[in-house]
Amino acid sequence: MSFLVVEKVGHHYFSPSSATKALEDVSFKIDEGEFVSLLGPSGCGKTTMLSILSGLIMPTIGSVTIDQKPPASHSNLIGYMLQQDYLFPWKTIEENILLGLKLNGRLDEVSQLTALYFLEQIGLAGVEKQFPRQLSGGMRQRAALARTMAVNPKLLLLDEPFSALDYQTKLKLEDLVFEILKEYGKTAVLVTHDIGEAIAMSDRILLFSANPGRLHKTFEVPSSLRKLKPFDARSTEEYNILFQEIWKELESLEENSGPKSPV
Ligand SMILES: Nc1ncnc2c1ncn2[C@@H]1O[C@H](COP(=O)(O)OP(=O)(O)OP(=O)(O)O)[C@@H](O)[C@H]1O
């Protein structure tokens, strides 16, 4: 039995005057420890899918299970990392990182020491007592990673977490997040617009088409790339071949995309 199972999921957004079909008949499975990316044109339902996986919204039709239970019953064990770090500016880095544990009633000496060890592991030792405004964008995103990992999530949902960073910082953070998630055997789902990032970080890529959002095609990342850090993977022949393949598929999707789908 797979860790995460999405079965025939469809989703509509309703307003008093209209309805938008964001997702239709989406099914896929993810095993524990897998890193899967959701890729596709704007409006194909990637963020909607992530919100459904998080339990924040319920699908209009179909089902999602994580460890055989609905996502909402795991809400304390699903970590979210977003484009913005959403650190509280009036709290120190340490207070921000321990906040999730505190809110979940799981803050004790051991969890605190683990969280602070983690901070050290990602190169933020010494900034515990500083405030977010005193750190660079890359450091703040690392702090956001530490906060996400502090609650020891079963599943990490990453919604374009590197897209607001400069290119060099983005590449460094991709390597860091990749290594940390592999070391701790975490399952992760990444939403990205960046084909290269998806190839360099994932085991599998799910390409969505839009209007309405459907799972169009799945790409397996070659095992030779999986052994490399994302930065090193980017300079291989296998990476270039897969990049071209996905690029062509995306282009054909954009050529064939029709008007927005009403209900
Ligand atoms: N809260 C909402 N109310 C109404 N429609 C929405 C809402 N959120 C998303 N949509 C619509 O649902 C569809 C899917 O949106 P979603 O944000 O999930 O796509 P996406 O692939 O993440 O897009 P992007 O890549 O641009 O972030 C789009 O047509 C969007 O306009």
Automatic annotation (TrEMBL):
Keywords: ATP-binding, Nucleotide-binding, Transport. One of its GO terms (molecular function) is ATP hydrolysis activity. Transmembrane segments: none annotated. Signal peptide: none annotated. PROSITE patterns: ABC_TRANSPORTER_1 (PS00211), ABC_TRANSPORTER_2 (PS50893). Residues 4-235 form the ABC transporter domain. It comes from the Bacteria. This is ABC transporter ATP-binding protein. It comes from Lederbergia citrea.
